[in-house]
Design goal:
Distance between the termini: 91 Å
Helix content: under 10%
Structural class: mainly beta
Largest sheet: 4 strands, antiparallel
Radius of gyration: 24 Å
Strand order of the largest sheet: 1-2-7-6
């Protein structure tokens, strides 16, 4: 049973069921956050990220379809990698006795603490088919020489 009806506006009227799972008051569902704002009546989504590692580098793949290379901003500061995007669109239509202007905004920001063995000055990025791919080369770690016993002659 709903407390209030949704109206589909930017500032939705919330239902009691939006906040509580299975009609229990134990654990609010709003704290089980998966990056999807649709349960709050907003359509924003934080892009999914896959991070892999091999012997030579780390790889970050971020799903961000519909964007262009110029929409991204990638920064490294104090071993913190920040990937952000802000896209603004505007359409104008003028006819005989009216003018229609529509605005659309889309933005996100994701930050990652970089491992100590990454080479932040050699990060490479490319955007293709809706996927932003970053390659973070690893530093060669010099291991201490194993203990060696020297025989006395």
């Amino acid at each position: 049973m709903s407390l209030v009806k949704r109206n589909g506006s930017l500032f939705p009227k919330l239902l009691l069921n939006d906040f509580f799972d299975n009609n229990t008051l134990d654990i609010p569902a709003m704290f089980d956050f998966d990056g999807n704002f649709s349960r709050f009546g907003l359509s924003a989504k934080i892009p999914s990220v896959n991070i892999t590692e091999n012997n030579e580098n780390y790889s970050i793949q971020l799903a961000a379809p519909g964007l262009e290379k110029k929409d991204f901003k990638i920064e490294v500061e104090n071993d913190m990698l920040t990937i952000s995007s802000q896209k603004e669109q505007q359409t104008d239509e003028e006819k005989d006795n009216y003018r229609r202007r529509e605005f659309s905004y889309q933005s996100f920001s994701r930050s990652f603490q970089l491992p100590e063995n990454s080479q932040t000055d050699k990060i490479e990025a490319q955007y293709q088919d809706g996927i932003l791919k970053l390659t973070l080369p690893k530093k060669e770690i010099t291991l201490p020489a194993p203990k060696k016993e020297i025989a006395i002659a």
